[in-house]
Amino acid sequence: MAAMSLRLLPICLLGACASAPAPQDPLVPANPVTIVAGKPVPSLPNEPHLKNVRQLTFDGENAEAYWSNDGKRLIFQRRDRSMPADQIYTLDLTTGEQRMITTGKGRTTCSYFLQGDREVVFASTHHHGDAPPVVKMTGRGYQWAVHQEYDVFAADADGGNVRQLTDTQGYDAEATVDRVTGDIVFTSVRDGDLELYIMNADGSNVRRVTNRPGYDGGAFFSPDGSRLVLRSAFPKSAEQAAEDASLLTQQIVRPSLMEISVCNRDGSGFTQLTHNGAANFAPFWFPDGKRIIFASNLGGVEKAQKTQDRSALRIFNLYLMNDDGSGLEKVTDSSEFDSFPMFSPDGRYLVFASNRYGQQQGETNLFVAEWVD
Questions:
Q1: Residues 261-284: tens digit of each pLDDT
Q2: Residue 24's pLDDT is what?
Q3: Nearest to 350 by CA among 338, 335, 362, 359
């Protein structure tokens, strides 16, 4: 994309720009965090929910940033031009310090803080070799690689004391944590299809959650830990299901056909919320546990249908809806890519990844904004 000059807004620290809401429960930090990392950038038009936006990273590909339980740090995956594959980093929002905490070997993804913030969890392939694994894409539509070398690991928050939590044949990744119990939900192909599983924080007591044809993954626990929100594939025909199964044997999935679903933590009450035929993913619960924010190229699909311009399918924005699928509302209005939203533990801020203000083609950076309900 063309380089853009940033018009800086008057400096206003996010933590000083709004009154702190009352803590919702004992797990929510009582004192608001003052964010000094990054710098202010202009808000985009038609985004009234986002105030005092700050850009946190400024080069490379940065994505899937998730908050620590005390609201002071983010953990995320990053790759710059000098790196062969993504590695896991932490960012101290109160100081701006950024550090890599994984080995620098293999490929990593999907990191999260465990209870107490002294430990983290992530998926990695480093135990299979220094070089990142490669999956050859078919070139037919939007696709993701699900590397069979991925296993879930835990480590101290500084990257030390790495230990392996999963050790089954095939893909184990997409781990997130229940802040109430400390349990980990993750996605695995161990039983032949991509399904959700829950395990204890030490990797023990693995139990299966979903059991249906099609990809179920990218799950997050509700604030009270009772439910899960996830992305799911719903093949519309036997032919499409067979093609998806064939792609999975090649370690490939098609996120262009994903819908948002919810279920109870034991897998019961499985309900499809979106039915728009777009690429819907990266869902996360609102702090009230009654609404969901997610990323979708719904607007891009509609534009592509009107103009026959398939490049519009790359346009992703954030949307919110009620936990029954009603009340759909567009949150961001980017002409490129917005995704991976997550609310801070106190609900004051929203972090997300975006191509906005990128200096080079394909650059994705992290942004944080005050949430205006």
A1: 999 999 999 999 999 999 999 999
A2: 53
A3: 338
What was the pLDDT predicted at 14?
34
225: left (phi over 0), alpha (psi -120 to 50) or beta: left
CA angle 307, 311, 313 (to 5 degrees): 90
Q: How many residues does the chain have?
A: 373
User: What's the pTM value of the predicted model, to 2 decimals?
Assistant: 0.91
Let me know: does 279 contact 256? Beta carbons within 8 Å: yes
Q: Report the alpha-carbon distance of residue 191 to residue 12 in Å, rounded.
A: 51
What class is the 60-350 domain? mainly beta
Cα separation, 265 vs 261, in Å, equals 12
Question: What does the domain layout of the chain look like in residue ranges?
Answer: 60-350
For residue 245, is it left (φ>0), alpha (ψ between -120 and 50) or beta?
A: alpha
Q: Chain-wide mean pLDDT for the chain? A: 91
The residue type of 207 is: R
Structure tokens at 361: 């083609």
pLDDT, tens only, 332-364: 999 999 999 999 999 999 999 999 998 888 899
**pLDDT less than 70: residues of the chain:** 1-25
Of 123, 113, 114, 103, the C-alpha closest to 172 is 123
Q: Give the pLDDT of residue 257.
A: 85
Residue among 19, 4, 88, 26 at smallest CA distance from 334 = 4
Burial 33-56 (b: 16+ CB within 10 A, else e): bebbbbebbeebeebebbbbbbbb
Helices and strands, number each (H, E), in the chain: 2, 27
The rounded Cα 314 to chain-centroid distance in angstroms is 17
For residue 219, what is the enclosing H or E element?
A: strand 216-221
In 248-297 the beta strands, taken as DSSP E runs, fall at 252-253, 259-264, 271-272, 280-285, 291-296
CA-wise closest residue to 301 among 257, 240, 356: 257
